[in-house]
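(Fold this chain)
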Amino acid sequence: MKNAAVVGLGNMGMGMAKNLLAAGFDVRGYDLRPERGRLLAELGGTSAASLADLAEVEVVFVMVMSGAQVMDVVAGQDSLMTALQPGATIIVSATIQPAEMRAVEEALAGTGLNLIDSPVSGGQFGAEAGTLTMMVAAEAAVFQANQDALNAVGGQIFHVGEMVGMGQTVKAALQAYIGVSFAGIFESLALGAAAGVKGETLYEVFSSTHVGDTPFFKNCAQQIMDRRFEDTGSHIGTMVKDLGISMAMARENGMPLFATSSAYELFKAGISMYPEGDNWTIVKFLEQFSGAEVTW
């Protein structure tokens, strides 16, 4: 049985840990919240009291929120860099800036530890179902050696390059697409409701088209029309962070992003009003202009 660990047992990390357990891995987990470690233990894993408890682990997924947190976990004081044995692999599955990912690589230079840059897409549902899309950047040999761990948590796994940071680069481009798509769905539904169209009609018509007959649209619209704006596994704060990364990459490359910048401003407006909400709360913000609710 191969040993694995997950650092960061939030909705995403816990889903990944469950699938590693299901694939036969001996799984340890570390989180600053003791209750998350207890939940992992109830599922059959082992809660680590510190990163030092991961010393014998062969592969570690890092699923935290920011680049600063990744660096602290990987190369800070009492970190994975000092805990793990040479030959172990660190898989950064968090979404951070490409430059931050490259800084992590530099910090690990000469340690004998392997590094995989692999942000994911698919949200809480994908993490729990083991169907995440993974954008992997790593040396080919490291990528091949960790197929079992990657396949345990991912459904679509793409080796996007050998240069660390390229996985985060692909994810930043993808998030621009997702953010703009969300904004289009939110605005079109709010527009229809403002003009007096029933939500059921909007759903049926939109779902019949080639752009609306997708799980992405249907899940989004159902959450909105069911008025489920919190605890659906798609927190608005994550999208604001991710779109900020997309915008930063655009500036670095001298690339104007007209639609993405508008979506970014829309999400920032939404989080200022609904900081605990999920992405769908943008519709609540838009509804304020017409007074019409998007509902069945």
User: Anything to note?
Assistant: The two ends are 50 Å apart (CA to CA).
